[in-house]
Amino acid sequence: MAVSVTVVFAPTKPTSNLGRAPVASTKAAAARQAAADRAVAKATAAAKAARILARQKAKVRAPSKKVAPTRQFEQDLWARGFETVVGIDEVGRGAWAGPLVVGAAVLPRDGRVLGIRDSKMLSEVEREKIFDRVAGWCKAWAVGAASEEECDTLGMSAAQKLATARAIAGLRLDNPPDAAIVDGTWDFVSPHVGHVERKIKADAFCLGVAAASILAKVSRDRLMRQHAEHYPHWHFDTNKGYPCPLHKTALLGYGPSAIHRRSWVFMDNYVPWPGMRTFVPEQPTLF
């Protein structure tokens, strides 16, 4: 006789959380996400504030012809015990022809000449008009130059240092400068001056550097106008040796003049005849 057995299981509570996250873990993840969102928002706000502040500073300190340079940098150095402070600036570094010129200006501690600005802010007529007044007002000033041959043989950095040394030597002061102010971040003055202050846009904000820029620019422009009389095809009286359409066209038609920098890459692009770029730094000797 067959016996039928029925087994009935009583319902039990599930023993596993598979398929659903524990409440504690969900809250922890939400907290972490909220903290991450707050950190991102904070960083974004800080970056935005930094950009606004940078724009405000740039707006306030942007070089302008309406804002006259001051003696603030010189006064800071005088207050620290430096007696003779010289402002230094260069012109002609980017030219294709002619010398690189460095101006050096030592200012008196009182008075000023109205109209001094960074030379790039002034027209050629304005620079010529103010040149004699600036030169007569300076306690001492000088310009030094490195020729186109020296630019070729030494390289532009060494040539600029050489021109600077010549400018400082030309000051002929009883006590040589014990501090210098230059535009930019590169110290091309040491070791000729013991202490060098490097200031961004110093030619626009520092009176001594602005004066040096005018003296250097006008001196070089006058020299290039003299060269134009001997090399009329290259229009040095107007372009001062810098690249421009007339200058480039003259190079294509006539090649380089005697005062062009022949080691520069423009010789490959604008001079149609091979071999013109070659220069000999030192002549061979028989002994």
Task: Describe the model.
This protein has 287 residues and is of the alpha/beta class. Among the domains are: 72-226, Ribonuclease H-like superfamily/Ribonuclease H (Nucleotidyltransferase, domain 5); 228-270. The chain is built from 10 helices and 5 strands, in the order ααββαβααββααααα. It has helices at residues 23-61, 72-79, 124-137, 148-154, 156-169, 202-205, 207-230, 236-239, 245-254, 266-270; strands at residues 85-91, 100-106, 140-146, 179-183, 195-199. A 5-stranded mixed β-sheet has the order 3-2-1-4-5. Strand 1 and strand 2 form a beta hairpin. Helix 3 packs across helix 7 and helix 4 crosses helix 5 (156-169). The longest helix has 39 residues, at 23-61. It is extended, with a radius of gyration of 34 Å.
Protein traits:
single chain; 287 residues; alpha/beta; Nucleotidyltransferase, domain 5; 5 strands; 45% helix; 11% strand
Total count of helical runs of at least 4 residues: 10
Q: Based on DSSP secondary structure assignment, what is the total number of beta strands?
A: 5
The pLDDT mean sits at 86
CATH topology of the domain at 72-226: Nucleotidyltransferase, domain 5
How would you characterize the largest beta sheet?
A: 5 strands, mixed
Poorly predicted regions are: none
Cα gyration radius (Å): 34 Å
CATH class value of the domain at 72-226? Alpha Beta
Task: Report the sheet-strand fraction.
Answer: 5-15%
Strand order of the largest sheet: 3-2-1-4-5
Helix content: 40-55%
Structural class, by secondary structure, is alpha/beta
Task: Give the H and E element order.
Answer: HHEEHEHHEEHHHHH
Report the principal-axis shape.
Answer: extended
CATH architecture of the domain at 72-226: 2-Layer Sandwich
Straight-line N-to-C gap: 135 Å
The CATH superfamily label of the domain at 72-226 reads: Ribonuclease H-like superfamily/Ribonuclease H
